[in-house]
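User: My collaborator sent over this chain with a note saying "see what the structure looks like." That's all I know about it. Can you take a look?
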Amino acid sequence: MWEMAIQHALMPAVSTGVSNSSHCSGHKEISISISVSNCQIQENVDVNSVYQIFPDEVLGSGQFGIVYGGKHRKSGRDVAIKIIDKLRFPTKQESQLRNEVAILQSLHHPGVVNLDCMFETPERVFVVMEKLHGDMLEMILSSEKGRLPERITKFLVTQILVALRHLHFKNIVHCDLKPENVLLASADSFPQVKLCDFGFARIIGEKSFRRSVVGTPAYLAPEVLRNKGYNRSLDMWSVGVIIYVSLSGTFPFNEDEDINDQIQNAAFMYPPHPWKKISPEGVREQRSRDTHPGTNVKGPETKVQGQRSRVNGRGAEIMGQRAPTSVKSSVETMSAGAIDLINNLLQVKMRKRYSVDKTLSHPWLQDYQMWLDLRNLETRMNERYITHESDDLRWQHHAELSGLDYPLHLANSPLCNSRRGAEFYQEQEEELETLSERISDL
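Assistant: Without extra context I'll predict from the sequence alone. Here is the result:
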């Protein structure tokens, strides 16, 4: 039945009305095309005349329908087309789809998937978007160890945060952040990422709360699971889970145990493999290696118990796997900074949870190599929207002090040649290091 519904959805749309000219003329095709770029509505436009849809190329399924590969007939440009059978979904879900389209229309950012246009018939809705190349979940699952290195995780998470900052600036909360909703623009090791699937997104002011049911349970904050009011900090909890999943290949919590108890048990949250036990001495050792130190992770050192949920497919489709109780730390261990940031995002109390800006300024994401990776991406894209030119001099000065190479094409800025500017950023860096030391002592 489902296969028949798909084939039916790809057939030209027809109305149930009869032509005035003749009762024998059959059904008349009716379609409305909404152009997102100029907000014009054109009647009597058939989606099949504008786009070719490939029924055998299923790119995925979202909250409201199946996404197929397609091609713009005139330009040959590849697109993704989400098809929704209005007869299969209740009015409430149809309104949520319109909510997604309306939000995408208001967002114009390199870190958010582009919406081309929408076609609507009495029976179906066709949402046409840019076509990308896989998602973050596929990247995690296809990696050699089933998890990502810190360098790549930082690179991807920073882009997510920059896009999220744009959303929150517009009072838009995604409400369903997870790796499968983070699309990759290419198959490169360091790709551009774009947020997608805004079916659960909400307009929430800075000091406002909502109570409607949203999101995917494995990535949802406690206040949503407990049917309490939530705000934009909901997205930040999801970012914490994404970082955890990316670095470990497992979910941080078991669904059948209290989140508060699990968070307090550091040995359960961060088992030796792949997480390394972090002691105050470990933090001090890291401080001698890194530009900005992480902070100490507090928690009882008990044996790991319970079931660790491993990422295995999409959404909350996971399989239980007992965490190892006595595994030696591997060579590739997580830094104190990564664990500290996760702990500050997975805060049960919303007021204690890090914001987007505070997360971006966390020492773990203030990394020279990551900054170079992001600048290389921006250079390839010929667009600067992730990093800011005000940081150029600071990182050039850091490279000089550390004896690191600094790309020549990035050293031509007049700001970078300012002696007074170098002194200013040295003072700023010293203040940041002092602040990090104070944080680690708390």
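A starting point for your reply to your collaborator: The chain has a mean pLDDT of 74.
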